[in-house]
Amino acid sequence: MARIVNLGQQVWTNYHQTAECNLKGRIELVNGDEENGRAHLKGVAETVLELLREARQYQIPVRPIGAGWSPSPINVVEDGWLVETLRLNRTYKLSAENLHADCDVDAESLLLVQAGATVDEVYESAEEIGRSLRTGGASNGQSFAGACATGTHGSVWQAGGIQDHVRAVQLVTPDRILWIEPEKGVLSDAFIAQTGSEIIRDDRIFAAAQLHVGAMGFVTAMLIETDPIYMVQNIQKAARIKREHIDWLCRGEFKRFSCEFGLHEEPYFQQLIMNPFDPFDKKSLLRFLYKRPYDPGIPPPPPGDMGAGYDALTLLGKAMAESDLFKAEILQLAMEQAYPDNRNVDDPPAIATWGHTTEEHAPIASLFNGSVTLDRSKLSEAFDLIIDSFRRGGGGTVVTLRFVRKAKGLLAPAHWPDNVVIDFDGPNVESSHQGYKKVVEALDDAGIAFTRHWGKTNNLDEHRVMRDYEQNFADWKWAQAQVMPDAADRQVFANDELVKLGLI
Ligand SMILES: Cc1cc2nc3c(=O)[nH]c(=O)nc-3n(C[C@H](O)[C@H](O)[C@H](O)COP(=O)(O)OP(=O)(O)OC[C@H]3O[C@@H](n4cnc5c(N)ncnc54)[C@H](O)[C@@H]3O)c2cc1C
């Protein structure tokens, strides 16, 4: 069994201090000393099952959390138990005999990951066995389960979200320990039995569990699929782009865009950080990553060397939000100072493994994170509207464009064949909220469909979630009812935000 450490009744604030709650108990789960991976999974799941049963009996709401990084209040619970998972952070390799006869991948490409392993820990474990993740977010301190729960994504335009790696999920409800896979089995029945789980093989239930927003049960472990290890070459530069370049991106002409500003090849990843006050006269910050074969002779880069470099932007953005003077100039200064100036095409190549392209993030008091995801083919039509509305609302920080394919999971915000995600990251001040609200209203008024990130500030409610996800929402609710038919079980996972979203 796992160990339960009760840290007691307390006021708890999430990582970036955007939400807080009064807890009946803050509970930490720690692995027991079982001898192998299956036994660990079984021990943890049985401990969680007992905890959830007790919660149901005494009607105490439970909130499993990872790193507590989501700025939206999905990770807080009033008068409940907050259950921390970060010490459930082991990863395990598999062998061919562990696989189901229908499994379509080799054992080497699979990794069993406990829910609380951070994205960084998963990168490290994968690299140790010559493997790599395909995509991830801009930072790496989230737990793997927490990142999947909200559909965390980056800007690998041929991949969806981090949850796309998931091939099976171990999920605990107050009634059962479940192992959820697609209809085509991945792990053998014998292996799964040793994890103490009942098997559900169903495509719809699996797609619901890939992105569950913390409302489908307590995830204790996931099976993920990795790629052979590779490296990426990083180009980061400040450059003035023109309106027509937005049209290129809208049409998916990434190679053409790269030939203009980066290397003469198709980028694996590409991102633009723009100054909304003057997007075409002021320089944008461009970031390209190009895939390279793995070379063990290339040493890991110094910390931060390949990272996204958001911190300075956010800090300077805060100073700017409090002053109306020279906003565009101050923001531009902040943008360019925060960005490396030695990663251009003629500089010595900066190459590292995928896992080294992100970095930990220091907590920033009161951060605002909001985004909208739209069909990439609507980018040209929506771009000016978005920028103008954000600025008119007083939004005083950078706007980032990222590109992803259709992501896995019934509730994945990136649900068009190709998507553009427009992020508004900055200080948690009224002008950031107002700017974001104006963007949302303007898109609605123009009849341009969009979705929002579950883990960020989103102003969503049940009515809107139903409208945004239509049949996928109905299917997700059906799947949730298969896993937890009893309303009292679902109620264990209730918090204000999930109830508001219609997910509990
Ligand atoms: C600095 C920063 C950078 C970010 N960068 C990006 C980015 O590049 N791209 C992007 O898409 N997003 C990004 N985000 C958003 C972030 O990735 C998501 O909010 C993610 O969900 C946070 O993971 P977490 O482990 O902290 O989850 P938490 O915030 O702890 O939890 C998120 C949800 O999942 C549930 N949950 C967590 N663990 C479990 C479990 N074991 N079982 C059941 N439910 C569980 C929680 O209850 C909650 O509902 C960023 C956020 C910050 C603060």
From TrEMBL:
Gene3D superfamilies: 3.30.465.10
Keyword Flavoprotein carried by entry: yes
Keywords, ordered alphabetically: FAD, Flavoprotein
Domain FAD-binding PCMH-type: 32-229
Pfam families with a match to the protein in the record: FAD_binding_4
Record has Flavoprotein as a keyword: yes
Highest taxon in the source lineage: Bacteria
InterPro entries linked to this entry: FAD-bd_PCMH, FAD-bd_PCMH-like_sf, FAD-bd_PCMH_sub2, FAD_lactone_oxidase-like, Oxid_FAD_bind_N
The name this protein goes by in its record: FAD-binding protein
